[in-house]
Design a protein that fits this description.
Blueprint: H1 7-21, E1 41-46, E2 51-56, H2 57-67, E3 78-80, E4 85-87, H3 102-113, H4 117-124, H5 148-161
Antiparallel strand pairs: 1-2, 3-4
Helix pairs in contact: 3-4
Length: 166
Amino acid sequence: MKKEASLNELQAMQEAIAYETLPDIHWIYGDDLCDCTFQRIGDWTNPYLGQTLRVRLCCIWAELRKMFPQFVQVIPASFDSNRNQWVVGTLPWDSEEIDMPLPIWYRQIAEQTGRSLASVREEYSKRTEERPKKLRPGTGKSRPPPTEDEILKARREQLLAAGYNV
């Protein structure tokens, strides 16, 4: 005769299965576990379902770029949305709060030198004392912050470009 498992037995079996399949590495933004320029991790969890969905969106985007190049733009400049203008080139680290994170430093060097990320990571992982340090408070940013007029002008231009009558 077949015996039904009790609720406690079922929970114990679920936990045993989960512990065998739980990831050893917890993906987080900036973990440098892939070579994507823009590391992005999607992370959704629901304790009432007992599940988490974690996605390396950056790697998926890289594959989508290969499949659909007409729908992905890779632009050799950063966009300053507060001034509605492109900024060409890399900016120096100007945080007053933290030293430049290693993954960003490696990618900045690769961008500036044209070297592969793998070769930069290999060389500079032994030279981490060289990475840009946080600035002393009040020493200034690489660019002055936008004025309120610049921000309002940029927002107006963006709305006009999107077809809004402002």
